[in-house]
Amino acid sequence: MAIGILSSLLASDHSSIVSMNLFVALLCGCIVIGHLLEESRWMNESITALVIGVCTGVVILLTTGGKSSHLLVFSEDLFFIYLLPPIIFNAGFQVKKKQFFRNFITIMLFGAVGTLISFGIISAGAIQFFKELHIGDLQIGDYLAIGAIFSATDSVCTLQVLNQDETPLLYSLVFGEGVVNDATSVVLFNAIQSFDLTHINSTIALKFVGNFFYLFISSTLLGVVTGLLSAFIIKKLYFGRHSTDREVALMILMAYLSYMLAELFYLSGILTVFFCGIVMSHYTWHNVTESSRVTTKHAFATLSFVAEIFIFLYVGMDALDIEKWRVISDSPGKSVGVSSILLGLILVGRAGFVFPLSFISNLTKKAPHEKIEFKQQVTIWWAGLMRGAVSMALAYNQFTSLGHTQVRGNAMMITSTITVVLFSTVVFGLMTKPLVRILLPSPKHLSRMLSSEPTTPKSFFLPLLDNGQGSEAEQGNRSVVRPSSLRMLLTTPSHTVHYYWRKFDDAFMRPVFGGRGFVPFVPGSPTERNGPQWQ
């Protein structure tokens, strides 16, 4: 008896090792093929991983006689606890802070308010159409969850095509909105799950709104506090004088700690780790030695890159999970109908806020280069049509138990989510390159736009290092006109709010938490007092 149990355990362990070997080999294959397709820019690592995952799923499905299509069982913990944090943190760590906060109001308008509008449109459409289709026993909470699930965008394909040197405003809006959108969608989803929405009244609605803003603000503050704590510890103790390994390890662990603390207190880990990344790149990163800066920059970028490929590869393999498709096999037409309705709602929901909010944003702008042109609005609309891993993970959370379901309505939503993610990522992703070529301005227009832009990012690969020091110094040498009206304050934020923040930062924050110009100096250390720093 004991021997039989032991042998079955050993066989299970060996099958897990085989699965991991194949998965790692597939990851390597995605990277190599993605590199070979880099020049064409039609394909990217996301689409490549998705296609390879689907092809691998087909092969496994055939070899197992139709029993399974994936190597690993889907786990929400794997996604939310291990794969998502490095992706979101690296986004915050790399963000061009000056460009991001210059357009902060517009980014929040698109990322937060726009997501709420899209959520409302998709939820209302789902209630209207799905009840007529009789897809299953779905409650009001399920319909609202569908709105949150399909409001989460994935703008990776568009960001890989856009050039932030040529279109810094557009890149900043698409990038910033993507991160805030994901955070807002997850916060919405968590708020929906924490309330009994079967009997909605004004009290529950107010509590829901209050809980949403509480999660949003608390998560942001937690990320900022954790980032400042890491900066203070490294500045005061200065680990680099003894071991650069310790300060690199502390940066990585503090970044991950911010996410886990948010999960511990039932906050939004995405928002927390994103703002932790921004704060750590502004303060902590300048407090470590030169070699640690290079190490952390590449370590965070590499972890994010591998996690993204891992997610898309798995999504491609799980798309052919025979168990879920078998539940709805008697009504394939209805499944196609649900997927088509969801795609239509995504298109309408996206348009329902991009163009109106762009109009509102343009009303507050005077300079032509600060306004969002119609072609840029279309690009922003298109960038948010793709759906990815966040939508998949939220759908699994709502409609399955440990990745499995036998309920017809739940299986219908899971398979429809898979269809929407595959179709939007592959079809819309492949169409992104030619569409952006058509929509973006001509080189002459670009050169005029670039010359009028106050900040021109220097490198795609070193975005976190551009803090706009030169322009800030210039601002410090000239008087700043105080805004005489609210309209003037909104139309000239970079010459007012940013200026006063720089003064506060230099006077109070950097002396305590470090940063550029406040790097600790220890004789014999790798960091020189006035040594060359990456600009």
UniProtKB/TrEMBL annotation:
Where would I find the Cation/H+ exchanger transmembrane domain in this sequence? 24-437
Q: Give the gene that encodes this protein.
A: LOC107949164
GO BP: any one term:
potassium ion transmembrane transport
Name this polypeptide is given = Sodium/hydrogen exchanger
The principal localisation class reads: membrane
Q: Which Gene3D superfamilies match?
A: 6.10.140.1330
Q: Where are the transmembrane segments?
A: 17-37, 49-66, 78-95, 107-131, 169-192, 212-234, 255-280, 300-320, 341-360, 380-399, 411-431
Q: What is its membrane topology? A: Multi-pass membrane protein
Identify the stretch annotated as signal peptide in this record. Answer: none
Q: Which reaction(s) does its UniProt entry say it catalyses?
A: Na(+)(in) + H(+)(out) = Na(+)(out) + H(+)(in); K(+)(in) + H(+)(out) = K(+)(out) + H(+)(in)
Keyword annotations for this protein?
Answer: Antiport, Ion transport, Membrane, Potassium, Potassium transport, Sodium, Sodium transport, Transmembrane, Transmembrane helix, Transport
Taxonomically, the superkingdom here is Eukaryota
Pfam families (alphabetical): Na_H_Exchanger (PF00999)
Q: Which GO terms fall under molecular function for this chain's record?
A: potassium:proton antiporter activity; sodium:proton antiporter activity
- Protein's cellular compartments: Membrane
For this chain, the family text in UniProt reads: Belongs to the monovalent cation:proton antiporter 1 (CPA1) transporter (TC 2.A.36) family.
Q: Which GO terms describe its cellular component?
A: plasma membrane
